[in-house]
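stage 2 :: seqdesign
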């Protein structure tokens, strides 16, 4: 029996207008995987060609261990995404929606998260050294063992946040 493998197109859209901002072909082995894997693949392809992902809808993305170092993800919707162990060092996540996401062991050193929504996200053991979390929504965030050395938390909403064993040395409130 001969099995035919086909490819599929995947689109990344603007989170506000729905306009297609990036489109790529998914190899058959990726096209058959879950949505998180498909959008994760598309995001990596978009970054390879320098596509602007600001204000796009990237919900449920599987970006486990991916390097997004210095990338502009301003205003993106990454709710329910898996960024466990990802490198977001110096990334611009101003106004991004990361609610209900997994960022355990992620590197967010010097990342800009001004006004970002991280409600009920898991940032346990993450490195947020020097991160700008000014005005961020951190309700119920799990920050156990996280490093927030020198981080700016001015105006951040922290009700219910868990800072157990977190390093807050030099953090600005």
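stage 2 :: out
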């Amino acid at each position: 029996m001969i099995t035919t493998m086909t490819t599929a197109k995947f689109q990344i859209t603007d989170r506000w207008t729905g306009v297609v901002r990036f489109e790529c072909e998914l190899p058959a082995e990726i096209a058959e995987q879950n949505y998180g894997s498909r959008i994760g693949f598309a995001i990596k392809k978009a970054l390879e060609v320098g596509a602007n992902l600001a204000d796009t809808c990237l919900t449920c993305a599987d970006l486990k261990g991916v390097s997004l170092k210095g990338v502009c993800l301003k205003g993106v919707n990454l709710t329910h995404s898996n960024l466990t162990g990802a490198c977001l060092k110096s990334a611009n996540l101003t106004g991004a929606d990361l609610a209900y996401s997994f960022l355990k062991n992620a590197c967010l050193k010097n990342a800009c998260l001004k006004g970002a929504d991280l409600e009920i996200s898991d940032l346990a053991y993450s490195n947020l050294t020097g991160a700008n979390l000014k005005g961020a929504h951190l309700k119920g965030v799990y920050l156990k063992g996280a490093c927030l050395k020198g981080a700016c938390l001015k105006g951040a909403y922290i009700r219910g946040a868990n800072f157990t064993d977190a390093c807050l040395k030099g953090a600005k409130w």
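stage 3 :: structure notes
- The first helix runs from residue 28 to 31.
- The mean pLDDT is 96.
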